[in-house]
């Protein structure tokens, strides 16, 4: 009997983000059909426990523009919607979604916030010249890293100087 991995999802008007949390997945098989049928299967763990998902997405998708990425911790699928519109839910079937299906709050953007999703999109700085505000940041912060050999630390080892006799010539070392 197969198990269901945790599936997280988020959407934009033109695409879906589906993330399947399954570390060390082997024999990953993904199938996406234009009508919205999404099928996933893989094995995971030392015992090669089988996992699978078979869901019908809310609407049609563009299979050719959709992309999948399999990594060590999860499988990410960026699915292009056939029509650029917001879906009221992920699945075609109404009612309570399966327990393994969760909203990906890290990627979620509300429909009315999508157009301002760029940082600072709602800020108007007018004619402010930030270089004249003397807020720092003008110096090269990496200067200390480049000058590692010339640090001004005061450790005893570095401050030991050779004793020079009054004659001005260093004593020969034994």
Unreliable spans are: none
Helix content: under 10%
- By CATH, the architecture of the domain at 6-106 is named Sandwich
CATH domain class name of the domain at 6-106: Mainly Beta
Strand order of the largest sheet: 6-7-2-1-8
Count of alpha/pi helices: 2
Summarize the biggest pleated sheet. Answer: 5 strands, mixed
Order of helices and strands: EEEEEEEEHH
The first-to-last residue Cα distance is 81 Å
Structural write-up:
The chain is 5% helix and 33% strand. It has a domain at 6-106: Immunoglobulin-like. The termini are far apart. The protein is built from 2 helices and 8 strands, in the order E-E-E-E-E-E-E-E-H-H. It is mainly beta and 174 residues long. A hairpin with a 3-residue loop joins strand 1 and strand 2 (15-21). The longest helix has 4 residues, at 143-146. The radius of gyration is 30 Å and the shape is globular.
